[in-house]
Structure formats: structure tokens, C-alpha cells
Amino acid sequence: MAKKHFIEVKNLVKNYGTGNIKVTAVDNVSFYVDKGAFIGIMGASGSGKDSLLQALRPRLRGCPAVFARRYITRPAASRGERHIAVSPERFAAMRAAGHFVMDWQSHGLCYGIGKGIEATLEHGHVVLMNGSREYLSEALRRYPALMPVLVEVDPAVLRSRLLARGRESGADIEERIARASLSADYPESLCRVDNSGPLEASVECFYELIRKWM
User: How far is it, in rounded angstroms, from Cα 92 to Cα 112?
Assistant: First the structure.
């Protein structure tokens, strides 16, 4: 099956002038433009998505790749994700005004992706989004070409990471580990990255995946 391009022009001819005086500005030109790749990274809280994306930044410097910043109803922090912190009231107002192309809720917080990614994709760039497993079906409905990547981690490693960051209680940690172990109906297009070992190995694996989509 032939690849379908975002824009495709075949045998374009453009003439200027009238009568016997004509100038051919474009003569039988064909070209196409593809939309950029949209990559959604998912994984359990504590699986290391933020660390993985942060470590990818220097590897992708100079490449046509953009990291989508999320709007989150959580205060900004000096470490971790570089999100845009907004109040619940401000988030609700932005959502009502159509500011987001996608938004979801998880662990009592609201997350949103701004409309700016549309122009980025149309310019052919790769967009990497820190997404949500629970929201994946809706994300694929809105963006059928979305390429989902699941960051996986061994339960014992996940427990130690959650304990180390100190944001959750013991009961919350066990609940998150249980959720991470639940089976899900993922699409065939899903790519998996095992982030149980050294971060450098996971970064290299993910980097090679992204390069195939550029």
C-alpha cells in the first residue's frame, strides 16, 4: 500500500501572462509534505519517563524533534519534568476555551497538551509527549498516527524508585505497583522500552526508535 502524504502535489504547472506572452513559472513539478511523527511516552509513575526524556534532550539536539510541555495542576519543581504549573481554576478555564488538544486526569491532577503541537507536526517535526496509559485510547482516536511507547520497569526497581523520591505513602506505592502490573489491551503499534537497568541503555534504545521515525 502506497504511503499517504499529508500534502501531495503532482504535475503542477503555473503560467503567467495572456495571449502570446506567457511565462511558465512552474513546469510539471511534483512534491509531497509529510506531517511529523507524534510519539506518546507512557509508563507507571516512577518508571523513569521524566529521566528518560531529560536524558534524550542532548542526544536530540540539532534534530527536528520537540518535547511537548505539559500543563499540570502541580507546582513547578527544580527537578523532574519542566511542566507549566497552573491552578485547577486556570486549567478549567483553559480547557473551556479550547486551549488543549488533549487533556486528562491522573492521581488527582489535571494534565493538558497545548494546541501548539499541531503547527509543529505540520512543519514535519517529531513531537514527543509524556502521556498516559489510561488516556491512550482517546489519544489514538484523536491522532490515529500516534506512535505509543511504553516504558516498563521491574516491580522491585519501581518500588525502590518510588520510595527514593518520597512523594507517596507506603499504601500509595503499593497501589501504584499493582496498577503498573495490570494487563492492558495495547495496540499492535506499541513499542516497549525496558527501563529497569542503567538509564544510558534505555536512552540508547529509545534514541534508535526515534531515529527511525525521523
Answer: 10
